[in-house]
AAA family ATPase (Halobacillus litoralis), 672 residues
Amino acid sequence: MKNQLTLLTGTKETKTTLHEQLEDILGEFIHIESYAVDEYVPDQVSDDLIIFSSYLIEKEAAPFIAPGSPHKTAIRTINYQHIERLLELEEGTSVLCVNDTSEMAEETIDTLKRMGMNHLTFTAYYPGQKNTHGIPTAITPGEVTLAPPSVEKVIDIGVRLIDITTLIEILDHFHLKEKLGGTISNRYTGKIIELSKKLSEMNKQTELLNQHLQQVVDGVNDGVMAIDSDQKVTVFNPFIEEYSGLSRTHAMGKPVRQLFKDPKLLEFITNPQDEGMYFSLNGYNLMLYRVQWEESDNVIFIFKNSDETITMEKAARKQLLKTGYIAKYTFKDIIGNSPAIRRAKTIGYKLAKTPLPVLIHGESGTGKELFAHAIHHESDRLYEPFLAVNFSALPEDLLESELFGYEEGAFTGAKKGGKKGLFEQADGGTIFLDEIGDISLKLQARLLRVIQEMEIRKIGGSKTIPINVRIIAATNKDLLELIDQGKFREDLYHRLKVLYVSVPPLRERKTDIPALVEQFLLENHTPNKALGKGLIGELMSYDWFGNIRELKNTISYLLTVSEGDTITVNDLPGEDFFQRPKKNTKRETTSLVDDHLNKKVLSIVLALNEAMINASRKKIYEQLSSEESNPLSEQQIRRVLAELKERGFVTIKRGRAGTQITESGANYIRQS
């Protein structure tokens, strides 16, 4: 009969990875049973040996362990196959180390440091922590979904494996050390040798990269000069030779003060507070920019020929105007100064500065398309194409050919030579996907692949075409509700909602109505039309469920029916003119249960949090079932939690963090 070993882990993914590792090495001699605390653990575990994946799991699983059962807590290590990705990061790079608890995050950092990853500066990050310190890069052992949205790059180093020291201890426990110890050591040594070979190859690639980099710098159409911490020149390309009249041979290695005599130029070069300046040098009108890395004292200066830049920008803008693929609106075109719209514009402006996908949510008529135009206009892609497609306006077959294009002969009626799709036409720029909640599951699958791979395949085509497109999507629908109904893919939802901005309805920014009315009068070429007494007050008393579009229509109506130079209250249309809220909408039924059950669910979350128990929907359901005669379903609990989150009473996280009550939620319970 085989020896018996039980493995206890925290998550299913960890269980699967470590079980496969142990089965591969010991499966022939030992029968291995594995359980994840997040899934299921028998009431009592007893075996020849019990292995815990971490000290945290040892504490969590302690009540299930039979007295006297021999056990060990595994020492874990990073999978060497992923080490090279960390070695590619520059010396001194700050990274977030993401895991599901603070203890696990710190343990991962400790493991990496013991392996010699001392060229990085680690900061632990786990659910509930708000401050990311502005760090754009994260590493994680398999917990990618826990990375904060602000992170630009996530490196998944995979689930940490059981270290050779623990494997040897297991062999020793089962008296298999002499039989298998050498095999494990050889495997371990082999991985080290393989890593050494990769490091050697990386060094060769670095030398080759430096040569290519010099070629690139020489080929840039701007002057490029770099100085080190002693302000000595380390880079001096041909264009800066032309602008300065100095040769590279003469300039390299010399202090910058020996090369340039212009006091204004020298002051800029030596003053790190200034990012850019305009000046003339040897008859050239130049714009000088500074680029400095936080972790380095080296500084790069870019000398742009202002005359050439202006000419190129005018040409690019003129070409885009010809195609019509251009953003027509800026944030200045979004009228209003209420706190709600100012906040939305501030967020939108920040989102514009990144290349990440954006999901814009807002009711119909709030101006979501204006935000999409404005975000593109403020981005680095300003002089690249901006294309928009409305998913609710076209049938699915036509949408597919419009988005992805087609090859000649792909279907009856296909144009000779085929056609480029919108994604291909938007290459380098932005594509705006309006009414994203209206597309079919089939089209969602194709769209997901485009976002993941940044490549398309035309209808009837066999080759993939790489693209570089920023995606902005908009919807007035509750995508989470559509996910629950099986009408929208959850993976696509998370791919689109990397960045997010909510456009407030007009009823939440009524103080903007006077400015909006003034704007609509200007657009109708009637700026001198007077507004009668009480008219603005009447307009501000309505809730505008059709939002800005409905207000604009109302102004058009008033201009049409009013007589003379003044629009009066009497010109307002009757009640049947205005859009009314639909029955049974979320506005009228904001909760599926009464306030009693809301408070009950919140109380259970608080109790589970205080007991350090994962407040999952299943756990809340079990607790409610034992206390209520008519408990909620898990689906209803999800909706209640979503409402509590919207009210600021809870935060909802994936993994063992589960649902956490906020200070506001705790105060609400105490006052009830």
Summary: The first helix runs from residue 12 to 26. The chain has six domains: 3-77+166-192, 80-158, 220-308, 331-502, 508-577, 595-671. Confidence is low (pLDDT under 50) at residues 581-593. The CA atoms of residues 532 and 568 lie 4 Å apart.
